[in-house]
């Protein structure tokens, strides 16, 4: 059965895909190595002192194996490094490298430009309202009675 109106999760996923595609294409055009969406998210989730792969997996909402694969690719690109965890001899912390910081800052600046393009296309008021709505506290996810 096909619904005529897309639900909110589909609309949000489509908007995220548009932003991801714009960022990937823009960074590639600028000569940067393309990253997957999961790899890009890792930069936002890293603590300054470093983060374990297990903690990154929890924050991303993925398996440790998936997080490890994303981290491994970023290690190979020289954007992340592994260092010993001072609180545990068994764990290693993942930290951003100087090159990773440069690429992350460039990606953030590129996203600012992409958001400007979006505002030009849909209107500044609408883009601002969207950002405001998405930053409002939503509380815990509700459990509702399914109709």
Quick description:
This protein is mainly alpha-helical and 147 residues long. The chain is 61% helix and 10% strand.
Task: Give the key terms.
mainly alpha, two-stranded antiparallel sheet, 6 helices, globular
| Shape assignment | globular
Strand content: 5-15%
Low-confidence stretches: none
Q: What is the average of the pLDDT values?
A: 93
What's the helix count? 6
- Report how far the terminal alpha carbons are from each other: 17 Å
Count of β-strands: 2
Major β-sheet profile: 2 strands, antiparallel
Oligomeric state: single chain
The secondary structure category is: mainly alpha
The order of strands across the largest sheet is 1-2
What is the percent of helical residues? 55-70%
N-to-C order of helices and strands: HHHHEEHH
The gyration radius over C-alpha positions equals 18 Å
């Amino acid at each position: 059965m096909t619904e005529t109106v897309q639900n909110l999760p589909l609309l949000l996923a489509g908007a995220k895909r548009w932003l991801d595609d714009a960022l990937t294409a823009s960074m590639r055009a600028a000569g940067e190595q393309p990253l997957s969406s999961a790899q890009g998210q890792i930069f936002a989730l890293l603590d300054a002192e470093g983060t374990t792969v297990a903690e990154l997996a929890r924050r991303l909402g993925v398996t440790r194996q998936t997080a490890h694969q994303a981290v491994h690719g970023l290690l190979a690109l020289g954007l992340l490094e592994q260092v010993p965890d001072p609180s545990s001899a068994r764990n290693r912390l993942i930290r951003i490298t100087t090159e990773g910081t440069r690429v992350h800052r460039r990606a953030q600046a590129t996203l600012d430009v992409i958001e400007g393009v979006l505002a030009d296309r849909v209107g500044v008021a609408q883009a601002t309202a969207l950002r405001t709505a998405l930053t409002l506290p939503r509380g815990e996810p509700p459990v509702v009675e399914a109709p």
